[in-house]
């Protein structure tokens, strides 16, 4: 069997990630490859670190992209900060809180689980009560922007509680970076990880991380070696450290880092506050249109993540049939529900380059057509008018 080159169609990506990749980033990915220790590439690495500090709003020296997806960024935070016998309080309000539990147990630490209803934010009062009950917690871990539900938690309050009760905070910011305020230094967050494929609109495969001085001190004070050689920050720093000769650790994904660098340059050009406002405005327009279609949100407005819109599937409308229709007829992708919400919700992404008016109009008109084809009564023109009123 002869296999020829793969040429994917041009899709509009409005699921939970990846998001649409901007043409500038696609062009950057195709630039000539340099050696991963080339002086010019090392200079770009330093620029990338500075750009990430801006995106994270931090002055942390230990700020860099892990050469792997956001899941590796998550693991890097846990394996570097937790040792056998440690205790971690993990807040679970969706799929990704469960993944944090997995990381804690694989470190040989004890996970103290604190559950919240899916579709709601983590409640600081409940977290404080748990911290009071368990006086020897080393790490408080929570998801800032829960991608499985679209709930946004109060990271400032939760990181403040971690400081108040003498523990470190680990924050999942995979979906929040670039889309909503993420103020690492102001909030005193200790270990934060994100992903390249959400609001940064880069390709999947890189995970920005940042560690506070308190987190670095904890890493240096470890009694046991970090269980992951590849994710040991003591070793990675030899390659990503400041100035001087770089020690070989791994062959960095050179062209992927070109793409991340370009995406961060674009974020800097737009301005963080402008990017946050753009995502908020696009969400408001989408929400106005969906309301006219009779589609209801899972998350209450005050806890809702603007770049990940989790909505209930109307009665009489089939999940898979609708998503297949959108893909086949409109080259449009939205996401299915996960875990407890599988088959009950759609997840509509408005992230990065995907968060623009033409995508909202496409989604509303295509979704209305898909539901009409199944006998569900709705009017696309009314939904479009409502969205356009917000955009105007």
Please provide a written account of the structure.
The protein has 392 residues and is α/β, with parallel strands linked by helices. 43% of the residues lie in helices and 14% in strands. The chain has helices at residues 23-29, 39-56, 70-81, 95-106, 124-133, 155-164, 184-187, 213-220, 233-240, 254-270, 272-292, 319-330, 357-372, 380-391, and strands at 12-13, 62-66, 87-92, 110-115, 139-143, 145-146, 151-152, 168-172, 191-193, 207-211, 308-312, 332-333, 335-336, 345-349. Helix 1 packs antiparallel against helix 10 (254-270), helix 11 packs parallel to helix 13 (357-372) and helix 11 (272-292) packs antiparallel against helix 14 (380-391).
Which structural traits does this protein have?
single chain, 392 residues, alpha/beta, Aspartate Aminotransferase, domain 2, Aspartate Aminotransferase, domain 1, 2 domains, seven-stranded mixed beta sheet, three-stranded antiparallel beta sheet, 14 helices, 14 strands, 14% strand, globular, PyrdxlP-dep_Trfase
